[in-house]
Amino acid sequence: MDLRDQASRIGTLADDTRRRLYEYVAAQTGPVTRDQASEALDIAPHTAYFHLDKLVTEGLLDVENRRLTGRTGPGAGRPSKLYRRADRELAVSLPPRQYDVVGDILASAVVRARAGQPLDAALDETAHERGAEIAGAADAAALPRLEGVAQVLASLGYEPRLDDDRVDLANCPFDTLAEKHTELVCGLNRSFVQGVGDGLGGGVAACLEPQEGQCCVRVRTAEGGS
Question: Mind telling me which SUPFAM superfamilies this protein's record contains (predicted)?
Answer without folding.
Answer: Winged helix' DNA-binding domain
